[in-house]
């Protein structure tokens, strides 16, 4: 299953007389193709378009409630636009400190954007609406029968009932949620006495919590001499070497590094790519180099530059984790020729590292090392 939640958007322009029928038909069609359980089919004719549906009292009542909620929201305000979303999820086991629970992970999100209009030329409007409805059905059929649409569906392990997967239908009009059913994200329903609640000391001792103090190191050193799994290069977007740490790493790793970088077709700002370490002096330990491209500082776009710099660190850490590289060394990124203020860059680097270590992927990294070029960098860190 693709771990990324898939989004499918359907845009509808409705008229007052048929709006509820159209919304009802679209919701029925989505559920018909996505419930995967024991369902009875039915068909409905809306604006001369035949739509498939689910013949189930509970499902029909649910759809009716959502359509009514949308209609009441539109009728009660000046804004005649709204959105109905259908989210399908998969239940997965989730281990808590005290017991095994469950969490619901969304895997597909259908977004129906709907606007109610009044048009004097009803015949033309209905013809256009009929075409729109046919296109909506085509979107549903095309996605659910496509390779991607099939691949995103989780493994079905329970075929009882109308659906092996929980789903939620939400209604929003003018930014206000009219009906929103919350997911239960796996919180334990057991009552836990105070005597069984672990202290932080116990959780750290049992390694259920990790101290960032044990996972982050600061070193004033030449990054090419560190005996780690991977070092990070503050590269230019063409990845073909340059000055500063970029030039030092290319010089230490030898010409094969440049040859490997030539095949990567460059790298976007905030992104990262990986190569072998080749002839690095500590190559028996440092087997890889991650190349990331930092932003050129711009006082007019401080927020976007900060996001790009944070992405350099986060993407590099993700790449290291995916390749089972447990120790990683960073230089200070963008603080040289790209003029990023050292103090701001340092805060972003440390904050991003702590955030990553607190994430599920953080368990894949044992040590993050920040290398400092001089005493000034050392003082700021």
UniProtKB/TrEMBL annotation:
Which GO biological-process labels does this protein carry? Answer: autophagy
Give the matching SMART domains.
A1pp
Instruction: Report the residue ranges that make up the Macro domain in this protein.
Output: 203-381
Name the Gene3D superfamilies on file.
Answer: Leucine Aminopeptidase, subunit E, domain 1
State the source organism's domain of life: Eukaryota
Alphabetized PANTHER family for the sequence:
GANGLIOSIDE INDUCED DIFFERENTIATION ASSOCIATED PROTEIN 2-RELATED, MACRO DOMAIN-CONTAINING PROTEIN
Q: Under what name is this protein listed? A: Macro domain-containing protein
Q: What is the organism field in this record?
A: Phellinidium pouzarii
What high-level taxonomic lineage is stated for the organism? Eukaryota, Fungi, Dikarya, Basidiomycota, Agaricomycotina
